[in-house]
Design goal:
Distance between the termini: 52 Å
Number of strands: 9
CATH class of the largest domain: Alpha Beta
Number of helices: 17
CATH topology of the largest domain: TIM Barrel
Largest sheet: 6 strands, parallel
Structural class: alpha/beta
CATH architecture of the largest domain: Alpha-Beta Barrel
Shape: globular
Helix content: 40-55%
Length: 445
């Protein structure tokens, strides 16, 4: 959640006979037919997207009532609130995209804190489960790597849950455990602001990484088998988590900082550490994380808006919104928005592979959590076009399968194995933030 590409047309869903035939055909037999190669890969390996924000959109647009939205129809035709994008996700387009597994983001604003944050998080977890239950022919809940593989073989889409912000546990390891029991299989340590125990990439440093309690959060996630997600955290927090974690970490929706110097992205040094850890960087599609030119354009446009209307005291046209709007329109005309394409997303994927290796990359689109999208990756139906682009660049079917979902499945299975060992060795942690980060002051003598 944030505030000429090659295109291939695929049928809405392959017939069972075609899928069976493709699955039985060696990759070499597909030859240079890229469409057939991609179909073969996605018939044998579930494509798993690490991050989709549809649950929050259902909450805000439909008051959390899944009966008010028909995911079996084209949701892009639904009217969007003013200034917001049309929805990017529905079942027909998920099928067109050959999606085998989706981590649904359970995000809440960082302004929601304390017990209310826990309640809203639980409501969003419930929303994901209600959404999955409403369309049982297409969705099934998944809690393990084996579940994802089984559900994919059944021809359904595995629904998984990721909590997008450490503020959502209200500084309680007991709440972390309750979320795991409710089905959460990753947690992003921070969102756009620092927590009491970890620094965000987009906030001023407060802890310079993780506090002792923050490190205990990572240890308890390892013991549970909940993936540690380092999207949104500062580089110091990334390093601190990698120092502590005994299981592979993930970046559920981040890109390469060498190509776009956004603090949300992953530096080459951290990419090397992710490879040693066994983790996976799932590349984001959001324009500001893909294109350095677009990131600068966004910053310039934001500065221009403030120049026209900077409450409460300044701004050239403060108190005259129509004049400010006209001035911004003139600025837009003189400074057209840079185009961002599918090919640039492929560039980020290839950079992750160049530094970390083909075993450590995945896909984390951020669909329905971003206001605009790259050309060629407009919605959840377009994943095959991305794999086709990489196939044209010389990628093998084996490496396409790793990107699509194989790497995430491997990391998830390894996290499950680490958890089984740790659960046998130690009890749930009873540590609190007060005990670890705020010890009582020593009395004066």
């Amino acid at each position: 959640m944030i505030f000429a590409p090659l295109r291939f047309t695929f049928p809405l869903a392959l017939t069972a006979a075609v899928i069976t035939a493709l699955a039985a055909t060696p990759a070499s037999a597909a030859g240079d037919n890229v469409e057939a190669r991609v179909a073969h890969v996605l018939a044998t390996t579930p494509l798993i997207d690490g991050h989709n924000d549809l649950p929050w959109e259902i909450r805000t647009r439909f008051n959390g009532d899944v009966a008010k939205i028909d995911l079996a129809a084209d949701t892009s035709k639904l009217p969007a609130p003013a200034g917001e994008a049309t929805l990017m996700t529905d079942i027909p387009r998920l099928r067109a995209g050959h999606v085998g597994g989706q981590f649904w983001s359970v995000w809440i604003p960082v302004s929601v804190k304390g017990p209310e944050a826990v309640q809203v998080t639980l409501e969003q977890i419930d929303l994901v489960k209600r959404m999955t239950a409403r369309w049982p022919r297409d969705f099934a809940m998944a809690y393990t790597a084996a579940d994802i593989r089984r559900i994919h073989k059944e021809g359904k889409i595995a629904s998984l849950i990721g909590v997008e912000g450490g503020h959502q546990i209200n500084n309680s390891l007991a709440m972390l455990r309750e979320y795991y029991d409710a089905g959460v299989r990753y947690m992003t340590l921070t969102h756009s602001s620092n927590t009491d125990w970890g620094d965000s990439a987009t906030d001023a440093p407060a802890h310079h990484g993780l506090t002792p309690f923050g490190k205990e959060v990572v240890r308890e996630m390892n013991r549970l088998g909940m993936l540690v997600d380092l999207s949104h955290v500062s580089e110091e927090t990334m390093r601190a988590a990698l120092d502590v974690s005994l299981a592979p970490v993930i970046f559920s929706h981040s890109s390469a900082r060498a190509l776009d110097d956004h603090p949300r992205n992953v530096s080459d040094d951290v990419l090397r550490r992710v490879a040693k850890n066994g983790g996976v960087v799932m590349v984001n599609f959001a324009l500001s994380y893909i294109s350095e030119a677009h990131r600068h354009w966004e910053a310039d446009r934001g500065a221009e808006q403030m120049r026209y209307n900077a409450p409460p005291f300044g701004g050239l046209y403060i108190g005259d919104p129509e004049r400010a709007k006209a001035a911004l329109a003139e600025w837009d005309k003189a400074h057209p928005e840079p185009k961002v394409t599918l090919a640039e997303v492929a560039d980020h994927i290839e950079h992750v592979v160049k530094i970390a290796g083909a075993d450590h990359v995945g896909i984390g689109s951020d669909f329905d959590g971003m206001p605009s999208v790259p050309q060629g990756l407009e919605d959840v139906g377009k994943y095959p076009a991305l794999l086709a682009e990489l196939a044209h660049r010389g990628w093998s079917d084996a490496d396409l399968g790793k990107l699509a979902g194989g790497n995430l499945l491997r990391a998830m299975a390894q996290a499950e194995a680490v958890a089984a060992k740790l659960r046998a060795e130690r009890a749930p942690s009873a540590a609190t933030l007060e005990q670890l980060d705020r010890p009582p002051a020593k009395s004066a003598r």
